[in-house]
Amino acid sequence: MARPRDTRIDDRVVAAWRALADELPYDDITMEAVAERARVGKPSLYRRYPNKARLAFAASIQQSVPVTAVDTGSLRNDLLEHVAALARSLDLTPRSAWADQLATAIADHDFAGVLSRFDEQPLQTVLGSWDRALARGEVKATVDARTALNDLAGTLIFHVLVRHLDADTTYRTLLVDRFLHGVCAE
């Protein structure tokens, strides 16, 4: 029987990645440097993250997940918090890292599945806000929450990563308000 995965190693690897990302350009970070900084063997590192794109993605997604569930009492305010967290994660990860991750996802079906699995935790957090809004009668019961929220995140990601535009407070507020216009109950 295999022994359980040691989450402390995952934490050390992600911390090592972040420290190196603060010191070096993305292209200069090597998996060997991450293993050395994290004080883990390369086989252990590669079992968890078979390439740099997967590790960079894991570190950036962790930054976008709120530590505690957001519950402001309104979907609008909850979404403003969630969208701000996603915008921060987009800003904290070097653009070349995002490019590497997206290119890897396009070329590698397995990695695209990894992206979906990592995305599930932040999506579940936001779905909690949606479920509370549904219970309060704020949103249409006929709207598929998962699809709608992925559309919201995708719009922000496209705005920042593809169009190279800023996701400042004004933009995030307009984005959330436009989104709510389509999903709110009459």
From TrEMBL:
Coiled-coil annotated residue ranges, if any: none
HTH tetR-type domain mapped to chain residues: 7-67
Gene3D superfamilies reported for this sequence: Homeodomain-like, Tetracycline Repressor, domain 2
Alphabetical keyword list: DNA-binding, Transcription, Transcription regulation
SUPFAM superfamilies: Homeodomain-like, Tetracyclin repressor-like, C-terminal domain
Residue ranges the UniProt entry marks as DNA-binding: 30-49
Domain of life of the native organism: Bacteria
Protein name: TetR/AcrR family transcriptional regulator
